[in-house]
Amino acid sequence: MARYTLEELASKISGAKIENCADPKKVQVESVSPVNPGVTNSISFLANKKMLNDAKKTASSIVLTTSEFAKELEVPCLVVDKPDLILAQVLDLIYPPHVFENKVEPNAFVHPKAKIGKNCYIGNFASVGEDAEIGDNSVLEDGVRIGRGAKIGEGSHVGPNNVIHHGVIIGKRFRSFGNCTIGGDGFRFVFANGKHNKIPQVGTVIVGDDVEMGSNSAIDRGGLENTIIGDGCKFDNLVHIGHNCVLGKNVVIAGYTGVAGSTTIGDNCTIGGGCGIADHLSIASGTIVGGGTSVRNTLSKPDIYVGWDYGLTFPEFQKLRVNIKNVVNFQKWARRIKAIESKLGISSEE
């Protein structure tokens, strides 16, 4: 961890201002902590009014926040327009990321026909196949396997034990974590002669710039066409994208979600955890799919969809829940109606 004064920290963040502090040279920070309860010599951040009362009582030495909230606090404040975004800069300053050497470890294997860019690190037991290309300033952590003819863009960081299969093309500033697989065969078989017969998958995977994949994610290669992951997509752990899928820009997918083959997802979609999305569908740009939702039909208009089936919007799902509750309670109501009829001497036919 690095130590800064409030004055030093402000000088490193463009546009930052100091409020509620007479002498910013004397205020020290060496860690980042939650605003509640806070820690001495730490900086916390406040971007939500719900946490304002906690910030008023925090033990932290500095609060990263907006000018609006700073006026209601007595603690020294580092004032910025978007504290939740600037928090990333603060974290990198106080907890500097590890810098890898420009080095190929002696027990790594690089094929003589592979091309390795400038200032790259190739980790222990990593292997880079024939005609593969690794862009400048990239990191392949221990155990990474880069297949023949695969291409990794500059500034990328491939996590430990990732497998990037042959012919996969990955853009700039790619980031992945442990045990991801990109470009494995799509899941297609034809049942004949009493067995499942495998259909070769001859497409590949094309990944755009600034994509991040969490641990144990798997992206299948296309069958005849390519599987495409657009610029800026972010995947949580254990996300699976089937063959021939096309994802637009800035699609965010939370953990344990699977997208079946040949489905298209538009730009700027958000998909919650534990969702199942069926094959050969289309999801409109800007759509939000709530966690645990099953999508079996095309979602042609951007909205918030939740539920178990058939792509209900949130209001539609709420109506469904009410109707289900009514059906469950029907027998109780029927018994009450019969009791009232009996007291009134009304006979009803069954």
Short description:
It contains 5 helices and 39 strands.
The top level CATH class name of the largest domain: Mainly Beta
Number of helices: 5
- Alpha-carbon distance between the termini? 78 Å
CATH topology of the largest domain: UDP N-Acetylglucosamine Acyltransferase, domain 1
Which homologous superfamily in CATH is the superfamily of the largest domain?
A: Hexapeptide repeat proteins
- Give the uncertain stretches in residue-range form: none
Pathway: Bacterial outer membrane biogenesis; LPS lipid A biosynthesis
Subunit structure: Homotrimer.
Protein name: UDP-3-O-acylglucosamine N-acyltransferase
InterPro entries: Hexapep, LpxD, Trimer_LpxA-like_sf, UDP_GlcNAc_AcTrfase_non-rep
Task: Indicate the topology.
Elements: E1 4-5, H1 6-11, E2 17-19, E3 28-29, E4 31-32, E5 42-45, H2 52-56, E6 62-65, H3 67-70, E7 77-79, H4 83-94, E8 103-104, E9 109-110, E10 115-116, E11 121-122, E12 127-128, E13 133-134, E14 139-140, E15 145-146, E16 151-152, E17 157-158, E18 163-164, E19 169-170, E20 175-176, E21 181-184, E22 189-192, E23 195-198, E24 205-207, E25 212-213, E26 218-220, E27 227-229, E28 234-235, E29 240-241, E30 246-247, E31 252-253, E32 258-259, E33 264-265, E34 270-271, E35 276-277, E36 282-283, E37 288-289, E38 294-295, E39 304-305, H5 314-344
Parallel strand pairs: 4-5, 5-6, 6-7, 8-11, 9-12, 10-13, 11-14, 12-15, 13-16, 14-17, 15-18, 16-19, 18-21, 19-24, 20-25, 21-26, 24-27, 25-28, 26-29, 27-30, 28-31, 29-32, 30-33, 31-34, 32-35, 33-36, 34-37, 35-38, 37-39
Antiparallel strand pairs: 1-3, 2-7, 22-23
